[in-house]
Design a protein that fits this description.
Nucleotidyltransferase, domain 5, 5 strands, alpha/beta, about 45% helix
């Protein structure tokens, strides 16, 4: 885990994917003031899922025009059994497509500074262990993708 960049508030953190986790932070309190998970509605048609979640993402992010910082986790190929499975099943390709479209939306529609954060901020924690750490250290419970977005925000505040 490297040192987090200095961000300004309000800040939104994003865990990208077909299901997108979002968390909004102010300088105080340390915990997020708003969270959401945008979920795909149609599992058999990836292109339709892609369009649905990106449309919903654009609507959500447009509601926060005064954001000073927007932090999104960059996809990374993992050289593990799960990483190889994701690459073979085209999940990594789909994640990269959604990520690229999200970055495009952010860069074209927002004045806030965009930070693309490498996954190394969370060390070797998977989604379940990350959610458990947030619960243990901060007495907060969030589901998978939202937990990643919250964890990223807590890391940026130096309290993860």
């Amino acid at each position: 885990m490297g040192k987090p960049p200095k961000v300004e508030y309000p800040l939104i953190t994003i865990d990208p994917g077909v299901n997108i986790g979002l968390a909004l932070f102010w300088e105080n309190p340390d915990t997020p003031i708003w969270t959401n998970c945008i979920k795909a509605t149609q599992t058999t048609n990836w292109l339709l899922n892609h369009q649905v979640v990106l449309h919903a993402f654009k609507n959500e992010i447009d509601a926060f025009k005064e954001l000073k910082s927007i932090c999104i986790e960059k996809p990374k190929f993992m050289e593990s059994h799960m990483g190889m499975t994701a690459a073979r099943s085209e999940s990594l390709f789909k994640l990269i497509c959604v990520y690229g479209a999200m970055v495009y939306i952010i860069r074209n529609d927002h004045k806030g500074k965009l930070y693309e954060i490498d996954t190394s901020w969370k060390g070797n924690l998977d989604k379940k262990k990350l959610a458990e750490r947030i619960k243990r250290k901060h007495n907060l419970e969030f589901l998978d993708h939202v937990a990643d977005a919250v964890g990223l925000g807590l890391w940026l505040k130096g309290i993860f």
